[in-house]
Every structure is written in structure tokens, then in C-alpha cells.
From TrEMBL:
Signal peptide positions on this chain: none
InterPro entries: Acyl_CoA_acyltransferase, GNAT_dom
An annotated Gene Ontology molecular function: transferase activity
Protein name from the UniProt record: GNAT family protein
Domain N-acetyltransferase span(s) in chain numbering: 15-158
Organism: Saxibacter everestensis
Principal EC category: transferase
Lineage of source species: Bacteria, Bacillati, Actinomycetota, Actinomycetes, Micrococcales
């Protein structure tokens, strides 16, 4: 049985720190950046729902089925933790295998293209495979969320299948869920791809 405990993961562009209610106001501000809760294909909490969503994630953490993070950009002027831009989690945790799903992720609209997403995925995948010893890491998304499906594919994850009429959206509509995974023997190639993307961004910023 692998114990999956709250931890802080620090990368080149982001810091992932254990979620707490202290992050509430900053997370509300991040969600307002792009009014993300209005996007039909996401599950971003509206400002008045943020406290309940934080509580929900922390209760799942208490049961051992989720490990939620708050995502912060690294302040380039100080090198320390800066602006809060969103949330992400290890979810559907199976401590016996161990196996995790990376999901329930959203970032402020202005942070898109900042390098935050590949850096966040590199941190979480590295921790899952190299520290927790996971033989597989899973991703799931709405069948109609083509942007998310393409982004997961770019990571190097392979599609396992589609769960038809799998769950209901907040509007009560049944959705099909696409399941992807990365296996431990695929991780070195996926890691190289993410590191290459971050190095390319670094070089462009220095040009």
C-alpha cells in the first residue's frame, strides 16, 4: 500500500502546493479570469461555489481518493511562488496498485500558453512514476472536449477507450468519457517530450 500524502511540487514555471481554504479568494480571482465556469466543457466552480468545491476536494483527500493542489505561477523576479492560477488533482487514487488519474484541472485564461500546463504535467507525472511508483497514470475528458483530447494526446498518452453515457454534466446531460493512460515504460519518452517543449519555450524567451 502506497501512502499518497500532500506535498509541494516545484517546477520551472509553476508551484503545485496542497490545496486549502486559504486559497479561496485567489482561486475566485483566477476563475474570473476568462469566466471559466461559463465554458460548457469544463467543470470550473463559479465564484459563489468555490468554497464548496474546495471543501469537496479536501473531503475526498481525507478519504484517500484525491490529492488536490493549488497551482501558482513562479514569480520570475524573485523565483518564488507568485500568482494563483488554478487547481489540479490526483484523483481516483488506488493506493494498492498504486495508480492515479490526473484531472479536475483548470487554469486562468491569461495563463494559457505560459508554460504552466506542460510544467504542471511534468511535475505530476514525475512524482507519480518516480516517487509513488505508479505503473500507470490515467487521464479522462469529455468526448466533445477536442482541445483537451488533443492536449492529452500531445503528452504521449494513448487512448484506452470511451465510456459511453458514463456520467452526467452539471446540467444533467449524459456524457461520453474518453480514457487515456501513460504506462511506466512509456514515461521516459513522455518526460523527454515535455522537457523538450519546456526547453523550446525557454530558448524562445531568451531569443
Amino acid at each position: 500500500m502506497t501512502v499518497i500524502e500532500p506535498t509541494t511540487l516545484t517546477g520551472e514555471y509553476v508551484v503545485l502546493e496542497p490545496l486549502s481554504q486559504d486559497h479561496h479568494d485567489a482561486l475566485v480571482a483566477a476563475a474570473r479570469d476568462g469566466e471559466l465556469w461559463k465554458l460548457w466543457y469544463t467543470s470550473v466552480p463559479a465564484p459563489e461555489e468555490m468554497a464548496a468545491e474546495i471543501d469537496r476536494r479536501l473531503k475526498l483527500q481525507d478519504t484517500g481518493s484525491m490529492l488536490p493542489f493549488t497551482t501558482r505561477l513562479i514569480d520570475p523576479s524573485t523565483g518564488g511562488a507568485g500568482e494563483v492560477i488554478g487547481m489540479t488533482t490526483y484523483m481516483n487514487i488506488d493506493s494498492a496498485t498504486p495508480r492515479v488519474e490526473i484531472g479536475s484541472t483548470w487554469n486562468a485564461a491569461s495563463s494559457h500558453g505560459s508554460g504552466s500546463n506542460p510544467d504542471s504535467k511534468l511535475l505530476m507525472l514525475r512524482h507519480a512514476f518516480e516517487t509513488l511508483g505508479c505503473p500507470a497514470v490515467e487521464f479522462r475528458t469529455h468526448w466533445l472536449n477536442h482541445q483537451s483530447r488533443e492536449a492529452i494526446g500531445r503528452l504521449g498518452a494513448k487512448q484506452d477507450g470511451v465510456l459511453r453515457n458514463h456520467t452526467r454534466t452539471s446540467e444533467g446531460v449524459l456524457r461520453d468519457t474518453v480514457v487515456f493512460s501513460i504506462l511506466e515504460h512509456e514515461w521516459p519518452m513522455v518526460r523527454s517530450g515535455l522537457e523538450f517543449r519546456l526547453a523550446k519555450r525557454r530558448q524562445a524567451a531568451q531569443a
